[in-house]
UniProtKB/TrEMBL annotation:
CDD domains: NAT_SF. Pfam families: Acetyltransf_1. Keywords: Ribonucleoprotein, Ribosomal protein, Transferase. It comes from Streptomyces griseoloalbus. Transmembrane segments: none annotated. This is Ribosomal protein S18 acetylase RimI-like enzyme. Residues 3-168 form the N-acetyltransferase domain. GO terms for cellular component: ribosome. SUPFAM superfamilies: Acyl-CoA N-acyltransferases (Nat). PROSITE patterns: GNAT. The keyword Mitochondrion does not apply.
């Protein structure tokens, strides 16, 4: 079967929330384990879908992963400025990794950004340890923007997020 990228359906919110939370947790991307408050954000697909576009990579009846595409500013944007779209919360279940689901999700976001009037760039934040994701971004032409790196938790010095951009 082929992997299809499409908008998430309401009946898939819980499954995608768990895939996202598990991907971050099992990959060691959350410092506080199951009690990490960010886990609630990762699991709350309904909230993301109300404020941005949530896409899934699906194969047959199974959701393999998902991503949040933010076409402009608003409550889901972390770093996007005027004329920029943003990619957030890219996650693929372990069973879907190495099969192109992550790259297909990022490509779908790039295609959507190109269709947004006035959008000249797509941006994203990532953790240092997300090396597989970095390879996808770099393969698709994203470049590092160290001047935009930022810390979502200023009280913790070691949580600096790396940033990338792709000029459209």
């Amino acid at each position: 079967m082929d992997i299809v990228i499409r908008p998430v359906e309401a009946g898939e919110y819980e499954a995608l929330g768990e895939i996202t939370a598990r991907a971050y947790l099992l990959d060691g991307l959350l410092d506080f384990g199951e009690s990490d408050a960010y886990l609630d954000e990762l699991r709350d697909v309904a909230k993301r879908a109300a404020a941005a576009e949530v896409l899934v990579a699906a194969e047959g009846g199974s959701v393999l992963g998902g991503v949040t595409f933010v076409p402009g500013g608003g409550p889901m944007a972390d770093i996007a400025g005027p004329g920029e779209a943003e990619i957030r919360m890219l996650a693929v279940a372990r069973t879907g990794r190495g099969r192109g689901a992550g790259e297909a999700l990022v490509r779908a976001c790039v295609d959507r950004a190109r269709a947004v009037e006035g959008c000249v760039r797509i941006v994203l934040s990532t953790q240092r340890t997300m090396r597989s994701a970095h390879r996808i971004y770099e393969r698709l032409g994203f470049t590092r923007t160290p001047e935009r790196d930022w810390n979502p938790l200023p009280d913790l010095d070691d949580i600096t997020l790396l940033t990338y951009e792709l000029t459209l």
